[in-house]
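Before the break, one more example. Copy the sequence into your notebook; we will annotate it together after we see the structure.
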Amino acid sequence: MFILNFKVNGSKIFKYFFIGVIILLVLILGIVIYRVFSGADNSQIESETCMPKNSISKISPKNYTNILKAVHEDIDSYVGQKISFSGYVYRVLDLQENQFILARDMIINSNFQTVIVGFLCEYDDAKKFNNNVWVNITGEIVKGDYHGDMPIVKIMKIEMVEKPSQEEYVYPPDDSYIPTMRQMGQSMFVSLF
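Here is what the structure looks like once it is written out:
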């Protein structure tokens, strides 16, 4: 009969076990760090592709103020973006003849008090459209000047539409709005006209 006899050295087993645990922890930490940083890159890509520059982004009443806020806070990131949305024509005294605000009424409290918010738009035949007429526009965001840097929508296509029977109002930006790092240092809200 053959008996296998070997001596177990407790200190060597502990050392090998300890080294194995350390290597495992370093691998896990490396994987976690990689996923965190690649996840941050993916979220940045997703936020940039949320309004892809090569296509026309449709703005709805649900995302209207989130997009309005994002564009006003970081104009340069949205220059060249084509957008399509509807609202009513609104003018203030110091606008040029070819300008109007494509406006929506934003509800600011439970008593249905509203303020007017919107994008400043430019269109050669803007004076053909009276105040309070509802239109749908497609245009491109450019950087302009109206009491400081301002996103301006250069209208490419405009058509009159009926006032919506539902979703006429918009609401303040919600929790889904995530500012970019550049916007974190600023406290600008939305342009109120």
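The beta strands are 56-58, 82-90, 99-107, 114-122, 134-145, 149-160, 169-170. The first strand starts at residue 56 and ends at 58. Try to locate both features in your own notes.
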